[in-house]
Design brief:
By secondary structure, the chain is α+β, with helices and mostly antiparallel strands. It has five helices and eight strands.
C-alpha cells in the first residue's frame, strides 16, 4: 500500500481499522489467478492471529494450501471528496476531486481448519465479539446441538498467521485547514458513509 508519511497510521491505529471494519477481503494467488473472499474476522489478543470461516460451498478455500501467502484488506471509512468543499479554490483553482478513507492491509500465511472443535470455538468467539454490548447477547449454544453440528459441517475455518500490518488514514491532511474543516463539516451533514468519515476526521482516525 502506498502511504505518504502524513497519512501513515501507527500499528495500534491500524489494528483499530481492522476492528472497526469488522470484515475484510482475503486475497490469495492461485493457479488460476487471484481469488478473494469477504468475511468477518476476529483478532487474537496478541494480534498474531486473525481467524474467520466461510461456507464450504464457496470454492475459494479449495484453491488455498496451508502456508500460502495471504493479503487482507480492511476498509473502515470511505467517501468521495468534491473540490466544491474547498474554500481555498477561490484563491487557487488548481484543485481536483479525491477520496477520503481509512484502510489497513494485513499480510501473513493461511491455515485452513476442518476440525469441528476448532470451527466451533471460532464461531463462538466470533459471535461473542460481535454480540458484545447488545441489550441481549445471543450465544451460539442457544441453538440446538444437532443444528450447530449441521452448520459446522458446512463451513471451513480460516486462520491467518500475521506477519505485518499497515494502516492509512487519508483524511484531507494534505489540504489547508480551512478546506479540511469544510470537508468535515459538509460530510457531517451527508450520507451515512460521509458522516462516518467526518467522525474520523474529527478524531484524526
Amino acid at each position: 500500500m502506498y502511504i505518504p508519511s502524513k497519512f501513515l497510521l501507527d500499528e495500534d491505529a491500524a489494528w483499530r481499522v481492522v476492528r472497526d471494519a469488522g470484515a475484510g477481503a482475503l486475497i490469495v494467488t492461485t493457479s488460476h489467478g487471484l481469488a478473494s473472499v469477504f468475511v468477518p474476522v476476529i483478532v487474537s489478543e496478541d494480534r498474531k492471529i486473525i481467524s474467520s470461516h466461510l461456507a464450504k460451498a464457496n470454492p475459494w478455500w479449495r484453491s488455498v494450501q496451508t502456508g500460502d501467502d495471504i493479503l487482507g484488506l480492511f476498509l473502515a471509512a470511505s467517501a468521495y471528496v468534491t473540490p466544491s468543499y474547498y474554500p481555498s479554490r477561490i484563491d487557487d483553482p488548481r484543485v481536483v476531486p479525491t477520496w477520503n478513507y481509512l484502510a489497513a492491509e494485513v499480510r501473513g500465511t493461511v491455515t485452513l481448519h476442518q476440525e469441528p472443535s476448532w470451527k466451533l470455538e471460532q464461531v463462538r468467539a466470533l459471535t461473542k465479539h460481535f454480540e458484545a454490548g447488545r441489550d441481549r447477547e445471543w450465544r451460539v449454544d442457544e441453538a440446538p446441538d444437532s443444528y450447530i453440528d449441521q452448520q459446522l459441517k458446512a463451513i471451513v475455518g480460516i486462520e491467518i498467521n500475521v506477519s505485518s500490518i499497515e494502516g492509512k488514514a487519508k483524511l484531507s491532511q494534505n489540504r489547508p485547514m480551512i478546506d479540511r474543516d469544510t470537508v468535515r463539516d459538509e460530510f457531517a451533514k451527508g450520507t451515512l458513509g460521509e458522516r462516518n468519515v467526518a467522525q474520523r476526521m474529527s478524531s484524526d482516525g
